[in-house]
Amino acid sequence: MPVTDVTTDAEALTLTLKAEFPAPVERLWEVFTDPRQLERFWGPPGYPATFTSFDPVVGGRAGYLMTSPKGEKFYARWEFLEIDGPRSLTVLDSFADENGDVREDMPTSRMTLTFAPTDSGSRLESVTTFTSAEALEQVVAMGMVEGSTMAINQVDRVLEGLRAYAAGKGTQTEILDDTHVRITRLIEGPIDLVWRAHHEPELLRQWMLGPDGWTMSVCDVDATVGGRYQYQWEPVGDTEGEPFGFDGETLLIEAPRRSVTTEHMTGTDYPSTLNDLSLEEEDGVTLITVLIEYPDKETRDIVLATGMTEGMEASYARLERTLVAA
Prior knowledge:
Blueprint: E1 3-9, E2 14-21, H1 25-33, H2 35-38, E3 49-54, E4 61-67, E5 73-84, E6 88-96, E7 109-118, E8 121-129, H3 133-141, H4 144-152, H5 155-160, H6 162-166, E9 172-175, E10 180-188, H7 191-199, H8 201-207, E11 214-221, E12 228-235, E13 244-254, E14 258-265, E15 273-282, E16 285-293, H9 297-304, H10 308-325
Antiparallel strand pairs: 1-2, 2-8, 3-4, 4-5, 5-6, 6-7, 7-8, 9-10, 10-16, 11-12, 12-13, 13-14, 14-15, 15-16
Helix pairs in contact: 7-8
């Protein structure tokens, strides 16, 4: 992971994050000053950022929002104070309301990003300075350390490009914390077609089958906010196993890039998970990312032990074949 250290200093009123990347300073500077690249990692998993304005000149401003899995929107803005590309960037970082005005009830801080070359690439040092110990304590309690770490650990995929980052690696499972798992899989195909394959029953029935020997006997999908879905699978031929299924509710739809649903095993009292699907296209390929939120660590470990990753890889390999034939 790129992040090597995160520390807080109550006396200096600072939060400092350090990270290293196998890319030159000029490339690192580019991803932090191009809003389309910046928004691909700035929000932590589950809270992607969307920059609505970006004027990188001294005195200029940038505005962005982060959208939670349940559709809640959190606004912020930067005021550019110092720009010395590609070496450093300083902004006044503020929480904002939906109109872009600074929220006086939340802390404003000064953030300086410094980029320096290393033997293997470049180093980022981010120093955020607060106006009081109470302000520092407030953002730490809100999860700024964990959120910043997870956000910056996503920079690699932007620096490398999606093919270099994920091509040929199959379905990858990362445990982010006790309740969050991230699944990634690169698919040869355009984002619009991959989106359709996740939401149209006639396509879903062709690929979302897990290991060979199963058929999807029920596939009802209402891909609107508040709509419900139900899937059921049954063994075919001499395949052993009992029919099973999942049902849930659509919480968020942002076609063709993001959808969030709950997932519950039909006919059981097992707790639901939160499944956050996002799609990202580059150079003719689409990266599928599924962020799964479990109710607790025990449930997470039980699900992972079922061979979930292998089953998803069988489905995704079938998806690629389906898209080629489409």
